[in-house]
Write a structure and sequence with these properties.
Length: 137
C-alpha cells in the first residue's frame, strides 16, 4: 500500500504476494500516506510494527503490558535504527473511566479510544458522549 499511495504506478513481486503494475487513486490527503497501525497481541507484532508500521493498536491490554511493550519497542527500534518516538500506541475499545485511561497513558500509550455502548436514539448517544467527555477531561 505504501507504494500504491506514493507512486503513480506500483508493482510487487514477493514470496507471498505478486501483483503487476497497478494505479491507485485518489492518493491519500495525508503525506506521504496515512499512519499504518497494526493491531493485536501476536508474539511478533512488535517486530512487525518496527519493520512496517507507524503504530500499534491493541485492546484488552493492561498498563503493565503497555509499559513492557513500550520498552521492547525501544529495544527493537534501536536495533533497527529507528526512533521509538515514531511509533504510536493507540489503545481502543476502552470504558470511559478516568483512572483506567490515565493508567494506560502513564504506562506509555499515546492515546486511548473510548468505546460507547449501543443505544437506540441520537439523544441517548449525545448523553452518553457527554458522560464520556466528563469522565476523561
Amino acid at each position: 500500500m505504501k507504494l500504491c499511495w506514493t507512486q503513480e504506478e506500483a508493482e510487487y513481486h514477493g514470496k507471498y504476494y505478486d501483483f503487476p503494475p497497478v494505479r491507485s487513486f485518489p492518493k491519500p490527503a495525508q503525506k506521504p500516506y496515512p499512519p499504518i497501525l497494526i493491531g493485536g497481541m501476536a508474539p511478533n507484532v512488535l517486530k512487525r510494527i518496527v519493520a512496517h508500521a507507524d503504530g500499534w493498536l491493541p485492546n484488552r491490554v493492561t498498563p503493565a503490558e503497555i509499559e513492557n511493550s513500550r520498552k521492547e519497542l525501544a529495544t527493537l527500534c534501536a536495533a533497527a535504527g529507528r526512533d521509538p518516538a515514531s511509533i504510536q500506541i493507540v489503545i481502543y475499545g476502552q470504558a470511559a473511566e478516568r483512572a483506567h485511561v490515565q493508567s494506560l497513558l502513564d504506562a506509555g500509550a499515546d492515546s486511548v479510544v473510548l468505546k460507547p455502548e449501543w443505544v437506540e436514539t441520537e439523544k441517548e448517544m449525545g448523553d452518553q458522549l457527554e458522560r464520556m467527555a466528563e469522565a476523561v477531561f
